[in-house]
User: Fold these one by one.
Assistant:
Number 1:
Amino acid sequence: MAKEEIKWLSPDLHISNVQLLFHQVLSKHTDDMFVISTLFSDVFKHYNDKSRHYHNMRHLYRMCKLWKKYKNKMSDPDAVFFAIIYHDVIYNPKKKNNEEASATFFRKLATKKSFKSDLSFVTNVCALIAATKHDAKLSPLMSDSKDCAFLLDFDLEVLGTEHLDVYDWYKSGVRKEYKMYSNKIYNGGRKSFLEMFLKKEKIYLTKEFKSREKRAKINLQNEINSYI
């Protein structure tokens, strides 16, 4: 199967691409360039942690690339961008509240770093971040927000990739992040997690990602089968 073009940019290019967009968007919310640089350095520190093998700067880059492509179809593209950047800023495989912790992280920095954004904007970003738990029972935004739908589809874009090397990067990366668990424990939990998505009426929420649905279900089933 063909390699994905652009696909494996060097780490430096992934970082510089995300950093450029970060500066462009953040400059609309604060005039302090030092604050912007400091915030990006903090984002980089979190996502570049050595324990991260999938939830890292490459994952951010892939989501930011999609944001740039579809931002004109969003009601509040800046809010979606902030949610992308901060949705995995707190990531501990042993915890089940990473999304809530990431939302809290953003709320605290947004109220301390001279942001121009009002409270409603910050609250919306936090709700978007929380929605990346991908649980409709916990997030009403999932059913009535096109912006949220785009965010969640971006987050799951890798599931529908046509490129086996990209899916293998995702699969092996997540496994490395859960290396503290035995194969027996990990395989059982992973299988249940994937089956949850496979049972969904639809994995992707936007019409723009509808074409990825079939491939995503094939990829999910193939990974599930690998744990049998």
Number 2:
Amino acid sequence: MEDGLNIKMTVNMNRFKSWWRHLLKQMVRDRRLSPAERLGTRIGYMGVGFLIAGQWTLSPPMYVIGFTCVLVQVSIRRQWNLVALQLNGLLAWTVHFIKSIL
């Protein structure tokens, strides 16, 4: 009796795993990035490096360069909400940079 129950549970678990795996594959889109998107991603990583360096030095030019690089990445990816955030940071640090010069 126990063997029959174990076999039924194993069969049901395998069906569930198969269904779950199929569902997860349908949720993920498998596609290649275009050359512009790959370049934008690399520029974005460089920009994040400048933003991190700017936190350590509090140097406005580093923030301006960092926000500009990340702005390139998010605009290529068409993530418009992040474009608005990057423009806000770029504007704030540009104003700060101009005030520090004058």
